Automatic annotation (TrEMBL):
Name used for this protein in its record: Asp-tRNAAsn/Glu-tRNAGln amidotransferase A subunit
Organism lineage: Bacteria, Pseudomonadati, Pseudomonadota, Alphaproteobacteria, Rhodobacterales
Signal peptide segment: none
Coiled-coil residue windows: none
UniProt domain Amidase: residue ranges: 25-431
Pfam families, A to Z: Amidase (PF01425)
Domain of life according to the entry: Bacteria
Length: 442
C-alpha cells in the first residue's frame, strides 16, 4: 500500500469511502511508522495498537457494507494524555498520577469512537497542562517540527508533534490558556479552541474547569471542521462557498502587539495584507478594558488550579518539575473575595468586548508573540522559563478570558500563527471564515 500517513484526516476519510484505502492497513501503517520513528518516545506516552487495530477492523467492515458513521470513520488520531482511556494509563504528564488507569473512556473519546475515529494512543504533554511551552523533564519534551532543539509548545505538545511528524492524521488536545493554539502555531498546524462547555470535560483530567476546553490539532481547516463534528457526534460545519469578500475583521491592538518578536510581527503584517487582497476589510481595534482580566489572569488560573491539585501536590511535591509546582503554589494564598471579584470583573469586560466587536466577523491577532524557545535555555535559566511562558500564553489567553471560539492558522512563516476570534458557540461560522482565510494565506 502507498504511504498515506502524511495525508490529512479529510483526505484519508475520502480515500476510505472510495475504497482506495483499507482502514486496517492504514492504521498498521501509522503504528509501524510510530514504532520506527526516532522521536516516538518524545511524542507518544503510550501507543494502543490492540485497540487501534480492533477499531480499524470495525471501520473496514462498515466501509465494505456502505455504513460508515462519519466522514472520518476509520481515520487514526492521537489523544493527549489527559483524556481517560479505559484500561490504559492516563497520567497527564505528571508523576503525581503515575499508574493511574481509568475504568472508562472520557465522554468525548467515546463519542469520537462511535463516529469511527481510531485511537492510536496517548501523547505527551506539559505537566498537568499548566504550561504553554511544552517543556516536561518528568516525562518527555516533544520537539518543534521546525527546530529539534526547541520546545513544541504546550500543553498539547505531543499532540501537535504527532500530526506534524506524520504519526497521526489529527490529534485531540485541550486548551485552558492556549494549549491547543500554541503548539498548533509553533508546528504550522490548524488548532481550534472551542467554546467552554461545547465539548464534554467528563473524564478529562482538569486544570481549571472554568477555562478548560477540548479541541483538535490538524493539518488544515477542513480536517478541523470534520474533527469538531466527530467530537460532538454531529454534522460538521459546511465550508462550501466560503469567501473573504466583504468580510470585516478587527486587528486587535490592545496588549497583543506588545514586545512581539520580529518574525511573528512580520508574519502577521503579511497575513493582514493577504486578507485585504482577498477582499476583506481589516480595521485596527483597541479594547483597553481587557487589560483588567489580563492582569487578573494570575489569580483566575492559579486559584482554581491550586484548589484542584493543592492537596495532591502537598502530599508529594518532590515528584513535580519545580517551575510547574511553583506556578500551582501561586494560588495557595489566594483569597476567596479576590477570586470572586476577579471573576466578576472578567464577566463585566466580556460584555464590553461583545459590544466593541459586534460589528466584525472576527478579531485577529498573532497567535504567539514569540517563537519556540530552546530546551536547554529553558532548563538552565529559571527566570527565562517563567517570563517566556507568560509571554507565550499572553495573546491566546484573550480568547479564554473573553469566552470566545478561536482558531489559529499557519501564516506560511515557520512557527508563526494567525488567530481568528469569534463569539462563543460560533465555531461553524468561524471555521467558514478560517477556510477562506486559509486559502488567502496559502
Amino acid at each position: 500500500m502507498d504511504d498515506w500517513t502524511g495525508k490529512g484526516a479529510a483526505q484519508l476519510g475520502r480515500a476510505i469511502g472510495a475504497g482506495k484505502v483499507d482502514p486496517v492497513e492504514l492504521t498498521q501503517g501509522f503504528l509501524d511508522k510510530i514504532d520506527s520513528h526516532p522521536l516516538r518516545d518524545r511524542i507518544y506516552a503510550r501507543v494502543t495498537p490492540e485497540r487501534a487495530l480492533a477499531e480499524a477492523g470495525a471501520a473496514r467492515e462498515r466501509a465494505r457494507a456502505g455504513q460508515r458513521r462519519s466522514p472520518l470513520d476509520g481515520v487514526p488520531v492521537s489523544w493527549k494524555d489527559l483524556f481517560d482511556t479505559s484500561g490504559v494509563a492516563t497520567e497527564a504528564g505528571s508523576a503525581l498520577l503515575k499508574g493511574r488507569v481509568p475504568e472508562a473512556d472520557a465522554r468525548v473519546l467515546r463519542t469520537a469512537t462511535t463516529m469511527g475515529l481510531v485511537c492510536l494512543g496517548k501523547t505527551h504533554m506539559s505537566e498537568l497542562a499548566f504550561s504553554g511551552l511544552g517543556l516536561n523533564p518528568v516525562t518527555a519534551t516533544p520537539p518543534s517540527v521546525n527546530d529539534p532543539d526547541a520546545v513544541s509548545g504546550g500543553s498539547s505538545s505531543g499532540a501537535a508533534a504527532s500530526v506534524a511528524n506524520g504519526l497521526a492524521a489529527a490529534a485531540v488536545g485541550s486548551d485552558t490558556g492556549g494549549s491547543v493554539r500554541i503548539p498548533s502555531a509553533w508546528n504550522d498546524l490548524v488548532g481550534l479552541k472551542t467554546t467552554s462547555g461545547r465539548l464534554s470535560l467528563e473524564g478529562v483530567v482538569p486544570l481549571a474547569a472554568r477555562f478548560d476546553t477540548v479541541g483538535p490539532l490538524c493539518r488544515n481547516v477542513e480536517d478541523a471542521a470534520l474533527m469538531l463534528g466527530a467530537l460532538e457526534g454531529a454534522p460538521a460545519p459546511d465550508l462550501e462557498g466560503a469567501s473573504l469578500k466583504g468580510r470585516r475583521f478587527a486587528a486587535l491592538t490592545t496588549i497583543v502587539m506588545d514586545d512581539i518578536r520580529d518574525e511573528p510581527a512580520s508574519a502577521y503584517a503579511a497575513a493582514l495584507e493577504r486578507l485585504r487582497a482577498a477582499g476583506a476589510e481589516v480595521v485596527e481595534l483597541d479594547v483597553p478594558e481587557i487589560a483588567g482580566p489580563m492582569g487578573d489572569a494570575g489569580i483566575l488560573y492559579t486559584a482554581e488550579a491550586w484548589a484542584t491539585w493543592g492537596k495532591a501536590i502537598d502530599a508529594n511535591p518532590d515528584v513535580m518539575f519545580a517551575p510547574i509546582r511553583e506556578r500551582f503554589a501561586a494560588g495557595r494564598e489566594a483569597l476567596a473575595a479576590d477570586y470572586i471579584a476577579a471573576v466578576a470583573r472578567m464577566h463585566a469586560v466580556q460584555e464590553v468586548w461583545a459590544r466593541a466587536t459586534a460589528g466584525f466577523d472576527a478579531v485577529l491577532c498573532p497567535t504567539a508573540p514569540n517563537l519556540p524557545p530552546k530546551v536547554d535555555r529553558l532548563m538552565e535559566q529559571g527566570d527565562y522559563y517563567v517570563t517566556e511562558n507568560l509571554l507565550t500564553l499572553r495573546n491566546t489567553r484573550v480568547g479564554n478570558l473573553m469566552g470566545l471560539s478561536t482558531v489559529t492558522l499557519p501564516t506560511g512563516m515557520p512557527s508563526c500563527g494567525l488567530s481568528l476570534m469569534a463569539p462563543p458557540m460560533e465555531e461553524h461560522r468561524l471555521l467558514r471564515l478560517a477556510v477562506a482565510t486559509e486559502r488567502a494565506l496559502a
